[in-house]
């Protein structure tokens, strides 16, 4: 229902050949403190745990490490992605961001339920399947699996993956529909208007471009007349206005709230929630000749996903398992569905509203909108296979200010990733461990707390840890990455100023001071590995392993362990080994032609790759 249905200014692949590449019923008020965004705790009324994704999730289901009490749930969702075509970079971006937020919340000791999935009903899907010579069901199976494969490659640790073709989802949709019908909010009527097949919605003529083209998909809308069932959206205009006035954090960023308020102020019109001409969908409970409108269907995936596999599928069970959601993360072009239609639907059914809807921006490439006709698309499968998940995750979360539009260029991608991950972080770790091996037999000479006595470095790190925590909580992911990088920069400055390699040569007290300097830097690296783990989990796992910790210790980390003093004297570090491969651009020529640049990672076995630097 989401990034794939919307034009996220990212293209989608035209064939399926790429798919198998290896590769509570309570209301809450938001607390305000400066510019932070808070997700208030709710009264979780079920003892059920979320079911983990077997491929990657390390959900912290232990008791709250600070209070000893059971952690409150944090339910975060991506859109359910429309399976008319394979996943594109827009859907990958949303999911990477959601995963980073979920991982941070787990570090805080929250019981996280991270929901993603696929929206599998509607006219476009039936058309796409027919064009490929397959049935809608077969088509949905293939594309849904493609999303799961990409999420695995990108280190996405989701807890729930819901498909709208799941029988449990259909049961929830029908029960919800019946509740809204019983509330006298559904009626039958004729409708005639201009319909955008790609948006799967009727459009007002005043919002269309020349030749009655959809402003999102730039394709002509077609006249359509149907006898449909309608949802009485207009009935909830005042309630929606009051909700936004009383809870301005409901829609974020703030400029998105202004947009939503503008839509509501202009007057809400009832919308069709069934289709007579679409067979591939959930039948309307009281009329088998019609199917439920794909958005009315798919939005309920956020609730149906909360059910356990073998649980009796009913609305009460689903809601008691974690609803309302703490955060809906979406692309800005599906904001109307999530910030207007969805809240009104929930009000009609007597259910609590989600705590926040956050609409992020679009992606461009080299400053231009992307499209197949321009030949400038970003294919996420290719990107992650070429550069690895850490590089892809880091670039888009660090370089795109979350909420705004962002631009990708390969040159900038390589420059940023090399400078930040390979040089500032990777090289600092590698050269410090190298000095430790050479001069201290890879063994720490003192506790990190004792080593840092009399230095300002520890205070600098502690301030940046707190800064990053606030930024993560505020969904300022780019700035949080910058705060982590500041620790790396400070560590490099400290090393260059202290020159421990020279102090070791002097022996005696100077050598002892140098040994303590290495402990200080490695303690900073330990803290960096925790702080950056929501963004680059694989890289941080490798850093933690270099510091002599096990996989289990990394998986059980929490944010409180960013407190200075983790490393102890006598601990043995691993032998130095590069934790991030620098990306090199190799110039290649063909038949004496002009030189072209080709980006490769240092561990790729490519011909003509020379001078590759390991850090």
Keywords summarizing the entry:
615 residues, disordered C terminus, elongated, single chain, alpha/beta, disordered N terminus, 6-stranded parallel beta sheet, 4-stranded antiparallel beta sheet
Structural topology:
Blueprint: E1 73-82, H1 89-107, E2 111-119, H2 123-131, H3 136-153, E3 160-163, H4 167-182, E4 186-196, E5 201-203, E6 222-231, H5 237-246, E7 251-252, H6 254-265, E8 271-272, E9 274-275, E10 283-284, E11 287-292, H7 294-298, H8 301-304, H9 315-319, E12 327-331, H10 335-349, E13 357-360, E14 363-365, H11 380-387, H12 389-399, E15 406-408, H13 410-440, H14 448-451, H15 457-473, H16 477-498, H17 500-506, H18 508-531, H19 537-546, H20 551-555, E16 583-588, E17 596-601
Parallel strand pairs: 1-2, 1-12, 2-3, 7-13, 12-13, 14-15
Antiparallel strand pairs: 4-5, 4-6, 6-8, 9-11, 10-11, 16-17
Helix pairs in contact: 2-3, 5-6, 6-10, 11-12, 12-13, 12-16, 13-16, 13-18, 15-16, 15-18, 16-18, 17-18, 18-19
Q: What is the CA-CA span between the terminal residues?
A: 43 Å
Spans of at least 5 consecutive residues with low confidence: 1-36, 38-68, 592-596, 604-615
**Total beta strand runs:** 17
Query: Roughly what fraction of the amino acids lie in strands?
Result: 5-15%
Percent of residues in helices = 40-55%
Structural class: alpha/beta
Biggest sheet descriptor = 6 strands, parallel
Radius of gyration: 26 Å
pLDDT averaged over residues: 85
Shape: elongated
């Amino acid at each position: 229902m989401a990034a794939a249905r919307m034009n996220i200014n990212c293209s989608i692949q035209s064939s399926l050949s790429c798919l198998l590449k290896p590769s509570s019923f309570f209301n809450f008020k938001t607390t305000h403190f400066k510019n932070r965004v808070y997700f208030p705790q709710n009264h979780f009324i079920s003892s059920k745990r979320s079911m983990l994704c077997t491929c990657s999730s390390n959900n912290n289901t232990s008791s709250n490490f600070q209070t000893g009490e059971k952690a409150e749930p944090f339910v975060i969702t991506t859109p359910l992605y429309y399976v008319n075509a394979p996943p594109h970079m827009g859907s990958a971006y949303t999911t990477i961001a959601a995963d980073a937020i979920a991982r941070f919340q787990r570090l805080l000791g929250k019981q996280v339920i991270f929901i993603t999935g696929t929206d599998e009903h509607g006219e476009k899907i039936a058309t796409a399947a027919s064009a490929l010579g397959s049935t809608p069901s077969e088509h949905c199976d293939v594309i849904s699996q493609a999303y799961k494969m990409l999420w695995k490659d990108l280190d996405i640790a989701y807890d729930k993956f819901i498909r709208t073709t799941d029988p449990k989802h259909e049961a929830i949709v029908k029960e919800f529909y019946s509740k809204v019908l019983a509330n006298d909010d559904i009626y039958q009527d004729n409708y005639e208007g201009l319909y955008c097949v790609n948006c799967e919605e009727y459009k007002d003529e005043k919002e269309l471009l020349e030749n009655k083209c959809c402003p999102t998909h730039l394709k002509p809308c077609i006249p359509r007349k149907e006898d449909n069932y309608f949802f009485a959206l207009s009935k909830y205009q005042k309630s929606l206005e009051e909700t936004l006035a009383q809870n301005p954090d409901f829609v974020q960023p703030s400029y998105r709230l202004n947009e939503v308020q503008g839509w509501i102020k202009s007057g809400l019109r009832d919308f069709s929630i069934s289709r007579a001409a679409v067979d591939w969908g959930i039948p309307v409970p009281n009329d088998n000749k019609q199917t439920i409108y794909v958005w009315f269907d798919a939005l309920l995936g956020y609730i149906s996903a909360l059910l356990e596999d073998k649980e009796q599928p009913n609305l009460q069970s689903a809601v008691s398992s974690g609803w309302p959601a703490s955060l809906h993360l979406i692309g800005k072009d599906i904001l109307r569905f999530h910030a207007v239609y969805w809240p009104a639907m929930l009000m009609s059914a007597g259910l609590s509203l989600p705590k926040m809807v956050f609409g992020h921006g679009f992606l461009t490439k080299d400053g231009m909108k992307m499209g197949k006709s321009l030949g400038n698309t970003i294919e996420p499968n290719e990107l992650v296979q070429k550069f690895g998940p850490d590089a892809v995750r880091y670039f888009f979360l660090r370089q795109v200010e979350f909420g705004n539009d962002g631009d990708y260029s390969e040159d900038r991608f390589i420059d940023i990733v090399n400078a930040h991950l390979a040089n500032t972080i990777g090289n600092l770790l590698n050269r410090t461990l190298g000095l430790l091996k050479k001069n201290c037999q890879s063994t720490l000479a003192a506790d990190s707390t004792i080593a840092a006595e009399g230095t300002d470095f520890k205070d600098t790190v502690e301030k940046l840890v707190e800064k990053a925590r606030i930024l993560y909580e505020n969904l300022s992911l780019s700035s949080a990455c910058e705060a982590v990088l500041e620790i790396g920069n400070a560590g490099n400055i400290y090393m260059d100023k202290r020159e421990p390699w020279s102090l070791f040569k002097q022996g005696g007290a100077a050598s002892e001071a140098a040994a303590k300097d290495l402990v200080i830097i490695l303690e900073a690296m330990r803290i960096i590995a925790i702080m950056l783990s929501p963004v680059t989990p694989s890289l941080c796992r490798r850093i933690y392993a270099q510091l002599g910790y096990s996989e289990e210790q990394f998986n059980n980390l929490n944010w409180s362990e960013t407190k200075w003093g983790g490393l102890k004297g006598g601990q043995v570090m691993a032998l130095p080994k590069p934790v991030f491969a620098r990306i090199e651009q190799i110039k290649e020529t063909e038949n004496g032609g002009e030189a072209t640049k080709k980006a490769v990672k240092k561990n790729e076995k490519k011909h003509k790759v020379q001078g590759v630097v390991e850090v």
